[in-house]
Design a protein that fits this description.
Structural class: alpha+beta
Number of strands: 8
Strand content: 5-15%
Distance between the termini: 48 Å
Number of helices: 10
Shape: globular
Length: 387
């Protein structure tokens, strides 16, 4: 009996090709873009031309016909080269997936080709100032006015709104039968009247800016609604599960980049007779970090496989576990890498210090590790809730 293939030849070829692209840009390019206040337009454009940005989207709309498994490879390898593209998480993974699965034919024709070839970007707005990790407290509401929708509310920590033509907003509509609020998704073009944005100053070295959004009597046509008004959580988690898988890929790439720098340093840095990497106090923690990253990748691959196979329930559990494992592995890998370099780990020359802040993002967003532990304890282990 043959062993199951964890990664196909096509996936390995994709990894190699994306890694080669990442090496042509690398961390120096990424750091320069951040320092100059620009965006990674050159890398985004070249990745688009090579077909990487829309590798998960349907072929009939210009995509590669793959899934989140392929897109996660793209993000991980670019991150491992030191130049991750955060908008891959948002535009093709979340928004592209939701529109491909639940959008009307007109919405698919309008948006998917541009998301696939990189000529259009879409942001995703779910987080709110007063809701935190409790998505049931989302207060952005949508009400009908004739055939139109009227949206009111606020969002915060929304990535890339300034470079996105539209934002996929999570609002809540009232169920006519029960009076209870249910989540619905709306495409809000950037220049829509009443749709305001202001940057959120961040201690984070990244090309993508964070924004707070205000929706003040935003009027949208009926066709701004994505999917079925009554589908609720099904459509929402069609975007949130890919988001967790892609966040895992983002974290894995970052952890691999930091670990590679530390291993290279440990091989060559000589203080006594042998390089410092010969000493177990240096070598063993790096080996442990490598093991943790590899284990997290296996969980990510499982989650991507389940999602692409259409098993949304199992994918939800696996995606949360993958995001948790990858975030913890990345934080540990970055911390150990900085420690391996000692004082050099805090210099701009080696470029690791900025990752200390960046690595923690994966622990916090898009859902905190504590909420993932809540999910696993309740949904997987069947333990009672404390809230």
């Amino acid at each position: 009996m043959r062993n199951p293939v964890i990664e196909t030849e096509e996936h390995r070829a994709l990894r190699e090709a994306v890694a080669a692209l990442g090496r042509r840009y690398g961390r120096e390019y990424f750091a320069r873009v951040v320092a100059e206040g620009r965006h990674t337009d050159e890398l985004w454009t070249e990745a688009a031309k090579l077909g990487y940005l829309g590798v998960n989207l349907p072929e009939e709309y210009g995509g590669g016909g793959g899934g989140i498994a392929e897109l996660s490879i793209v993000l991980e390898e670019l991150g491992a080269a030191g130049c991750p593209l955060l908008m891959l998480v948002v535009s093709p993974a979340i928004c592209g997936t939701v529109i491909a699965r639940f959008g009307t034919e007109e919405q698919k024709r309008t948006w998917l080709p541009g998301l696939a070839d990189g000529s259009r970007k879409m942001a995703f707005g779910i987080t709110e100032p007063d809701a935190g990790s409790n998505s049931h407290r989302i207060t952005t509401t949508a009400r009908r006015d004739g055939t139109d929708w009227i949206l009111n509310g606020r969002k915060v920590f929304i990535s890339g709104v300034d470079i996105a033509e539209a934002t996929l907003i999570v609002g809540r509509t009232e169920d006519a039968r029960t009076g209870r609020l249910k989540p619905c998704l709306f495409i809000v073009p950037r220049e829509t009247s009443g749709f305001g944005r202001s940057p959120v100053p961040m201690e984070l070295a990244a090309p993508e800016k964070q924004f707070e959004l205000t929706l003040d009597e935003v009027r949208l046509p009926a066709d701004a609604l994505v999917g079925d008004e009554d589908a609720g959580l099904l459509q929402l988690f069609a975007g949130l599960n890919p988001e967790r898988i892609m966040t895992a890929a983002f974290a894995l790439g970052m952890g691999r980049y930091a670990l590679d720098r530390a291993v290279d340093y440990a091989r060559t840095r000589q203080v006594w007779k042998e390089p410092v990497g010969a000493h177990q106090a240096i070598a063993h923690p790096l080996a442990q970090a490598h093991i943790e990253l590899e284990l997290a990748r296996l969980m990510m691959q499982k989650a991507a496989h389940l999602y692409d196979a259409g098993d949304d329930t199992a994918a939800g559990e696996a995606a949360n576990m993958a995001k948790y494992a990858a975030a913890e592995a990345a934080v540990h890998a970055v911390d150990q890498s900085v420690h391996t370099l000692g004082g050099n780990g805090l210099t701009r020359e080696y470029g690791l210090a900025s990752l200390i802040t960046a690595a923690r993002v994966a622990r916090i967003a898009p859902v905190s590790r504590e909420m993932i532990l809540n999910f696993v304890s309740h949904q997987t282990l069947g333990l009672p809730k404390s809230y």
